[in-house]
Amino acid sequence: MQIKDLNAQGYEVIVVSSGAVGLGRQRLKYRRLVNSSFADLQKPQVELDGKACAAVGQNCLMALYDTLFSQLDVTSAQLLVTDNDFRDKAFRNQLSETVQSPSLLFASLLRPRPPAMPADGSKGEITFAGRFTASAIAACFAEICTIPLDTAKVRLQLQKTVVGDATAPAALPKYRGLLGTAATIAREEGAAALWKGIVPGLHRQCIYGGLRIGLYEPVKSFYVGQDHVGDVPLSKKIAAGFTTGAIAIAVANPTDLVKVRLQAEGKLAPGAPRRYAGAMDAYAKIARQEGFTALWTGLGPNVARNAIINAAELASYDQVKQTILKLPGFKDDVVTHLFSGLGAGFFAVCVGSPVDVVKSRMMGDSSAYKSTIDCFVKTLKNDGPLAFYKGFLPNFARLGSWNVIMFLTLEQVQKFFVRKPAS
């Protein structure tokens, strides 16, 4: 009925079918079996000609279509296309132009391509607004759950190595390890201090989380092209993650700056005023005292860090999930999402820790460094190469748990935004 309705509206419908060769081969084998004696069947069987199989199969398919079209009262024509035709570049170009012509409707839409990353395995699609909202909700929930670990990570990264000499031995570092850092902060500043920066953190996730994840599928589809069939190459996934991470953090950099500034503020001496009264006060003071463009302090390392981490995070989640689903016994459920999220967090920390340290140091004390390169060189010179992996365990604990919580939440929240196709 859909074909008849389209034809009545003046559309020329192209029905593309495959399987003619296989159907023809089965039919010819059946004929040979019926028409052969027992002695003939004992002899070596000659392989059937592919063109003959295609011709017989095409006749069978078109007989079916002719019956269907005669009942619909529409005019039909048929064309047999073989593998040799597709080897001809001119034929492929002509076919592509015909299918993409605005005056035609490609009937393979009757069998639509499913979304690249469906939320619940069901057929349907999600608009950008729905994907953005679901991503922002999931990212904010993960931020609330894991920001104490992020605060500990920032304090460890901002802690500089103190070098002693013969007269004055080096002092022990104030913060040691994930649990030790969290305990020190809670003991000296109160447990609520572990949630310092939560307000700008939620601002950040609403913007950055919504954009980087919400744009990932559209950008990935753009890179592979509309005609792509099969699994998306890993290189395209990485490119899409890198692109969306850079775009998102370029917009959300002010929220990241304020978050780091608030997290970096430790225990103050009695009577000493706090640098910022809160998130909104921090935005205003930075813009007023340092200039509006100061809100984008550390943009270079921040773009590098978030583009790299986002590419590692989203591409690895996508790839790990795709690999797991091909294994026997696994399906698109919580267990698969758990393993995929842990894999995403591990790869993200491994490749993103050096730029993450540079970003935190520049945002925590921008006056100490002239540029991103200067911060990198001074950190390497003063603290050694291992300084770039300071806070690795808390960073992995934070990003690993963050990714698990975020992706588990995202997979569930997206279900509410899936639009079922019209029947």
Task: Write structural notes for this entry.
- Helix 7 (about 130-160) runs antiparallel to helix 16 (about 390-415) and helix 10 packs antiparallel against helix 11.
- The protein folds into two domains: about 1-110, no CATH class; about 130-415, Alpha/alpha barrel (Mitochondrial carrier fold), CATH 1.50.40.
- It has a two-stranded parallel ribbon.
- It has helices at about 1-10, 20-35, 40, 50-70, 85, 90-100, 130-160, 180-190, 200-215, 215-225, 235-265, 280-290, 300-325, 335-365, 370-385, 390-415, and strands at about 10-15, 105.
- The chain is about 65% helix and about 0% strand.
- The protein has about 425 residues and is mainly α.
- It is elongated, with a radius of gyration of 30 Å.
- The chain is built from 16 helices and two strands.
Looking at CATH, the homologous superfamily of the largest domain is Mitochondrial carrier domain
% residues in beta strands: under 5%
Q: Which segments are poorly predicted (pLDDT under 50) over 5 or more consecutive residues?
A: 102-123
In the CATH hierarchy, what is the class of the largest domain?
Mainly Alpha
Remind me, CATH topology of the largest domain? Answer: Mitochondrial carrier fold
Walk across the major sheet and give the strand order. Answer: 1-2
Overall mean pLDDT: 76
How do the helices and strands follow one another from N- to C-terminus?
Answer: HEHHHHHEHHHHHHHHHH
Q: How many β strands by DSSP?
A: 2
Radius of gyration: 30 Å
Approximate helicity band? 55-70%
The major pleated sheet works out as: 2 strands, parallel
Architecture per CATH nomenclature, i.e. the level-2 architecture of the largest domain: Alpha/alpha barrel
Number of domains: 2
The DSSP helix count reads: 16
